[in-house]
Amino acid sequence: MKDNLIKIGHQTQANKDIFLYHNGTITCGRFLYKDGSGRFKKIYDEIISYSTSKRLKNVLDVSEYKIWDATTIYDEYILKHWLKSISSKTVEKMANETIIRKFVDSIKPDFKKALNKKWKKIFNEWKDKNDPNTPRNSWQII
Question: Is the overall model pTM greater than 0.85, yes or no?
Fold first, then answer.
């Protein structure tokens, strides 16, 4: 279980996946962020406990999970499949996806803040601001 990664997102501009490790570390490309409080490790454990998806090559992909509310369930599941009812197993799976999505959404602001802080540090230390290799956006340091 300790070897599993959780894919929590994808950074589109840099075309890199964002992973959460069992020790609470988040990585995206070359950028690594460790939460000092241990909150990310707890979130990792919670995501593993709620997950029902299969892992592919030790990676649990929760990046496509969404928040399921009553309207979304009706519009995107019942109407799409022309169903009259929905099973309790499916409702449980949707509830777990919603819980996991909320955990992932709670991580994102901390990760973005750390990435922007690192980028500002690199940008301010850059000697020649007109150099074409200067990272102009935070995603360019990934």
Answer: no
